[in-house]
Amino acid sequence: MTLWASLVVNNIGRLVTMDGSGAQGLGEIEDAVVIIDAGRIAWLGKKSELPTDTRGVPHVDAKGGLVMPGLIDCHTHVVFAGDRADEFARRARGESYAQIMAAGGGIRSTMTKVRASSPEALAAATTPRLDRMLARGVTTVEAKSGYGLSVASELSMLEAIKLLDAAHPISLVPTLLAAHAVPPEHEGNPRAWCEQITSDLLPEVARRQLASACDVFIEQGAFSVEDARPMLERAKDLGLHVRVHAEQLSRQGGAQLAAELGALSAGHLEFVTEDDARALAKAGVVCEVLSIAQVFLRGQRPIPGRMLADAGCTLAVATDVNPGTAMSTDLLLSAGLAVTQSGLTAEEALKGITLHAAKALGFTDRGVIAPGLRADLAIYDATHAAELVYRWGDVSARTVIVNGRVAHTR
Ligand code: NIG
Ligand code: FE
Fold this sequence. Notes:
The chain is α/β, with parallel strands linked by helices. It is built from 15 helices and 16 strands. Helix 4 (119-136) packs across helix 5 (151-167) and helix 12 (331-342) packs across helix 13. The relative contact order is 0.16. Bound molecules: N-(iminomethyl)-L-glutamic acid and fe (iii) ion (FE). Residues 77, 106-107, 110, 217, 245, 248, 293, 320, 322-325 line the site of N-(iminomethyl)-L-glutamic acid. N-(iminomethyl)-L-glutamic acid (NIG) binds at residues 77, 106-107, 110, 217, 245, 248, 293, 320, 322-325.
């Protein structure tokens, strides 16, 4: 048998395919080789079963390490300007996230900095964060707008994401989150801003293909289910997916709305009930466990990951990286925290940053290592997959391959 090959990853101690086979479903193969051609996986398997002569083909030596599908961070606010260290310190002195938001801080304080930034400046501010993500083995990142909060500035944020997708090895997936906070121009009238998003922003975003999904923050002081429903329905009519920030600080009905609209994902979920969990499971909404945000905000109750999984929900794990509630780009830390805070098994946490994160983004071409899928691979100096969620803040990839090319090496 002759196989075309552009790159061969050999000397893999443990290949973690995530294809659902094996006792824990991680699809592990020891002493493996992966053959890549034209950006896709051409073959994978045991070295002893190699179907073709790979001499003369460029090689990456995994040096006996662990190979994972490129990791996927399916919920982030990674595009922003400035930081909010001052608010972190204020919260440490006793103020709450909701109090700071009500006093005009929080999301709105980042808005001021973002409105003053060009798409190029936003992309430049974001690039070092993406570099750190790539260095840990992350190859796909969802990125939300939501700090512009005007038609022009939300479009600027989406343009920044487009620039980053073109310039950075990481594959970026843009989401319109214009309904993230009520802009000062619509103070006290969240409905009016949702109506403007629906009439002015969504058609433009769809026409220019600047986002693949529309998201909303359903919370007291942000948007209600009634504010959000017509906007999300319009987004669906325009061919966009729906996502929801639901039940983070209180139970407002965002999870049930996500289920009703067949959202791709619902994130946070600290305050979901068993009834909500059953609705999410039945509708196939992927539940995003955002553990860094949960522990970053003092006094937050744990996200009930175990309850959600036992109700039949598919769980993804993401960083939610943002300057207010999750100032960390470390997806593997989030996965580790999902284990200890929310009762996920190590294997569930690992599926949450690969297979199930791909599902949260509507992808069927990544998150798993299988013939024909994108050749996005992360190579680690590790023996067992569980090490990735166990060595907190301490894991980086030795080599990262994106679309069949070496994109990072340490
Ligand atoms: O996902 N919950 C709302 N949005 C973000 C926080 C954004 C911010 O504070 O800047 C979140 O946690
Ligand atoms: Fe978020």
